[in-house]
Write a structure and sequence with these properties.
By secondary structure, the protein is an alpha+beta fold. It has four helices and seven strands. It has a seven-stranded antiparallel β-sheet. Helix 1 packs across helix 2 and helix 1 packs across helix 4. The chain is globular and about 45 Å long.
């Protein structure tokens, strides 16, 4: 078995940790920034260990279904979840647009205060992945900063709205 790759992106947001946590965990705001370039529909969101986030990203006539099962929720410090490709009934399934994408990713998001700013460290690692899934993840991870970066720019806008309110 190949060594399992890890994807990590870090970002410092110019806002206190409680506001950054809110932008990441309130479905109203999460739907605005998660999946930039797609229409993000949150079908369910239970932010608790054992709870789920059922997410659909619409690209024209196509949908990418994702099921997130929360493992650890430690406000406002840390989130840990299994991020899973799903079918329209929310069963774990191969991604129809990328069949070799890992079915399950262990995702960890740490929120670290730094004065009035917050450092967010986002990490994903494939779980129980086949060689093809590991190779696909390693290849795609090289370009994931762009998508996350676009989402984080929207988080910046949301944080600015919070400060203005």
């Amino acid at each position: 078995m190949s060594e399992v790759p890890e994807y990590t992106i870090e970002r410092v947001f110019d806002a206190p940790r409680d506001l950054v946590w809110r932008a990441w965990t309130d479905p109203e705001y999460l739907a605005r920034w998660y999946g930039p370039g797609a229409e993000t529909v949150i079908h369910a969101f239970d932010l608790a260990p054992g709870g789920s986030w059922l997410n659909e990203m619409k690209f024209g006539e196509n949908s990418d279904y994702q099921r997130v099962d929360f493992i650890e929720v430690d406000p406002p410090s840390k989130l840990v979840w299994h991020h899973q490709s799903a079918d329209a009934q929310w069963n774990v399934a191969a991604n129809p647009m990328m069949p070799d994408w890992p079915k399950v990713l262990l995702t960890t998001v740490a929120f670290e205060p730094d004065g009035e700013q917050t450092k967010v460290t986002f990490t994903q690692v494939p779980l129980d992945a086949s060689e093809a899934e590991i190779a696909c993840f390693a290849e795609m991870a090289r370009g994931m900063d762009g998508g996350w970066g676009k989402g984080f720019e929207i988080v910046d806008q949301i944080l600015e709205e919070f400060r203005a309110a």
